[in-house]
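Researcher: Let's walk through a ligand-bound prediction step by step. First, I give you the protein sequence. Second, the SMILES string for zinc ion. Third, you return the three-dimensional complex as structure tokens. Ready?
Model: Ready.
Researcher: Here are steps one and two:
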Amino acid sequence: MPELPEVEVTRQSLLPVVHHAVIKQLIVRQAQLRWLIPSKQLSKVLKNAEILSISRRGKYLLFEVANGFFLIHLGMSGHLKFLSSPSPLDKHDHVEFIFDTDARLRYYDPRRFGAVLWLGQHPFEHPLLAHLGCEPLSSAFNAKYLFEKCRKSKLAIKTFLMDQKIVVGIGNIYASESLFLAGIHPLKPAHQLSEQECKLLVHAAKKILKKAIAQGGTTLKDFAHTDGKPGYFSHSLQVYGKAEVPCAKCNQPIIQLRINQRSSYFCEYCQQ
Ligand SMILES: [Zn+2]
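Model: Step three, the predicted complex:
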């Protein structure tokens, strides 16, 4: 599943090629994604619209045009492909933005859990965006903020960290990795974390997300000119998906445990 770093790398890769591009036509081949694509409305508002910016809020990409904003979410298996000229379609290429240069942006999504929606002029009032927590890479996500929020919750810290109302974009993979780096047990109740532990955890989450974005930026350097699938940084993970593999710090086997129905990985020696 694309997580925050993959979405941010997608944004950074697309921006240079679609910034100021003018949409000539929108083609929706399959409107039934997670929510029905408002094809008629989108086609109308996007005709001859210039893309003014692409920003990201959590895992949502926000494309700005003169009339307002449209949103793209990659869901479980979505991927955006930029093509400088027409090429054969894949059966999962559900949406196509055709630019006046004949270049095109295709939304590919085999499982169809993603979204393409029109948000209008006030994107942050939309129900999908209105209640999101702070951005993990912003200064608003700091030890003081996390400690204040943690004090009020008895949830396991791993589950708590994945709550999008607290902080956005930390999914299962990066929650496991951040807790390992910070040396905190994933089942520790949030309200038992000290301010120092919150500091370590914030630092770890930012470090891991930044590293993943930087690595994505390297491996996906030619992303905008290819239709290859992006790599999801599995090479840099320390604990996620590594049950029984020796811990990189202490050599004891990594433990796998289900927490809140999600596979979780940790080292019981390094994370006490
Ligand atoms: Zn260990």
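Researcher: And what stands out?
Model: The chain has two domains: 4-130, 143-266. The mean pLDDT is 91.
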